[in-house]
From TrEMBL:
NCBIfam families: SusC_RagA_signa. The keyword Zinc does not apply. This is TonB family protein / TonB-dependent receptor. Residues 53-159 form the TonB-dependent receptor plug domain.
Length: 213
């Protein structure tokens, strides 16, 4: 790798703290990453309550509300794109009201039944399309059989556990989230005016077209 002497390399890996290393005049770098203990202390929701991530044996991924609210997309399912390993979201349509993504957890785990994962909102079956990012506190995804076995055959394609925000003691808080976007067409068709349409019909009839003075 060829980099300038005043450059700084940023080294990162899942489960470890990101480290910035100045290059300087060094031709060989020995970099040791430290384990991210804060990630292991995160609380994740499981089928029978909540645990610290360091104590969880099954394959569980989680994302909090801060990561979701920072993404400006119309549907909660599309907000999970790229947030968790093994979770694939495909958006099949961009029409209003039909922009929800299709979620697959480690591919399709059952045949003959719906391949979609089981979605539970505060312990009850629900849909991500009925939620807004401001209502969500945490989302946990149970990806393997050991973590999703408590839900039986309905969890053959994984489980998505959604925990919504609850009221807290203290002063009332009002939060407003808004977004504005603009788009421009890459190419606009040339439309025919009434004058052009009239001459087109006249030519088809074999007559002389009309000319404007």
């Amino acid at each position: 790798m060829s980099v300038p002497s005043n450059a700084t390399l940023q080294v990162s890996y899942i489960g470890y703290n990101t480290q910035d290393v100045p290059v300087g005049n060094k031709s060989f770098l020995n970099i040791t990453l430290k384990e991210d203990t804060e990630t292991l202390d995160e609380v994740v929701v499981v089928g029978y309550g909540s645990q610290k991530k360091v104590n969880v044996i099954g394959s569980i991924a989680s994302v909090d509300s801060k990561a979701l609210e920072s993404r400006a997309v119309p549907d909660v399912s599309n907000m999970l794109t790229g947030q968790m390993s093994g979770v694939t979201i495909t958006q099949e349509s961009g029409n209003p009201g039909q922009d929800a993504g299709t979620i697959r957890i480690r591919g399709v785990g059952s045949f003959g039944a719906t391949p979609s994962p089981l979605v539970l909102v505060d312990g009850l079956p629900g849909s991500l399309s009925d939620l807004t990012p401001a209502d969500i506190d945490n989302i946990s995804v149970l990806k393997d059989a050991s973590s999703a076995a408590i839900y039986g055959s309905r969890a053959a394609n994984g489980v998505i556990l959604v925990t919504t925000k609850k009221g807290k003691e203290g002063k009332a808080r009002i939060i407003y989230n808004g977004s504005v976007g603009m788009s421009q067409a890459t190419e606009l068709p040339e439309l025919a005016h009434s004058y052009d349409m009239q001459n087109f019909i006249i030519r088809r009839l074999g007559q002389k077209p009309i000319r404007l003075r």
